[in-house]
Amino acid sequence: MAIHKLTDLKIRAKIREIEELAFSTPKNALLGDGQGLTLAIAKNGSASWLFRYMDHGKAKSVGLGAYPATSLKTAREKAQALRDARANGTDPAAAKRQEAREQQLQQAKA
Fold first, then answer.
1. pLDDT tens-digit map of 54-77
2. Contact, 84 vs 95, CB < 8 A?
């Protein structure tokens, strides 16, 4: 499986293409960089990084941030950290949900 297939130039070109074809494109486009790192591009041109993986036969994904605020390099680093967590037996989506719950509890206590 090829990794690091994307470049900023390819990403910007694809975003422009999707914006131009917004009315004829039925759904969002997904650009894969390899090893689960994916850029989801909406018809309006907004884009977000996702880490996609399978857990017990179920497809899951974790958001990594919006593009270009989250750069390709940063998204790759975040995806690698999540791959490492998966290798250690952690489910990244479940961990993110737990972290959000803990933050809500902290805010409720404050």
1. 999 999 999 999 999 999 999 999
2. no
Q: Side by side, which strands form the sheet with 47-55?
A: 29-34, 37-41, 47-55, 58-67
Judge contact between 28 and 19, C-beta under 8 A. no
Spell out the domain ranges in the chain: 8-109
- Say if pTM beats, i.e. exceeds, 0.85: yes
Per CATH, the homologous superfamily of domain 8-109 is Integrase, DNA-binding domain (3.30.160.390)
DSSP string, 35-81: TTEEEEE-TTS-EEEEEEEEETTEEEEEEEEEETTS-HHHHHHHHHH
Question: What backbone phi and psi angles, to 5 degrees, belong to 58?
Answer: -110, 130
